[in-house]
Amino acid sequence: MHPIFLKIGNFELASYGLMTALGYAVASGYLVPRLKNSGIKGLNKDTFWNLLFIVFVGAIIGGKLLFIIVSWPQLGATFAEKISTIIHDIRYGFVFFGGLLVAVTGALWYMRRKKLPILKTSDFFIVALPLGHALGRIGCFLAGCCYGKPTTLPWGVRFTDPHALVPPELLNIPLHPTQLYESMLNFLLFLLLHYASQKPHREGKILVLYVLCYATMRFGIEFLRGDYRGGFLLGMSPSQVISLCVAGVALWIWATYLREGKHVR
Description:
Elements: E1 4-8, E2 11-14, H1 15-35, H2 45-71, H3 79-88, H4 96-113, H5 118-126, H6 129-143, H7 178-197, H8 205-222, H9 238-258
Antiparallel strand pairs: 1-2
């Protein structure tokens, strides 16, 4: 599509980076007005922005690391070629679950350090995640990464820009717009979480609802992805295996902890 949003001389503004930054800004903008009425003891402006920064940096580092691990066989024939590919394409190539794992680890460390209520704080922040993620996936679409398999469906998308991350052999071929599928589903998930968070609920319910819904939709979308998925177990990609595991845990928590009990706001 349009991997380079703006170019002035030697300066290039990548569409992927722009949409990622926009997603961060919009998600933050959603949370800030709700901070005062969150009712979370110890969550002030300083801890809010510190926690948000830890999550953002953790998502970038974790997403890149898991991408390198999963894609290692495809990065080059020699170690030097692999490192060169990583450096050259440093702006692209992230695996969401890797980012989520590192971001959650960092967030838990900070919340424990500041003695914030983990479940209630997580419920508050998680609502904005699919909103920012939806915009980030539009960045994927513009860059041509995370592309889908060839399709004959009328909404198949043809990538024509040679700078797009779609392989040359797939340029001008209709592909599933998997990036837009996930963007749309993330936006719907945001609306669901926003609605659920306004109703009385047990602490942790919004977090578990997010995990269950995202894992389910990601498992399905993986079948339509055309980029290298890193075959892992029974023909499933690492993301599908992770999706099954976290969805199973989420279902267990829902059944044993969230099904009954006192509701809170």
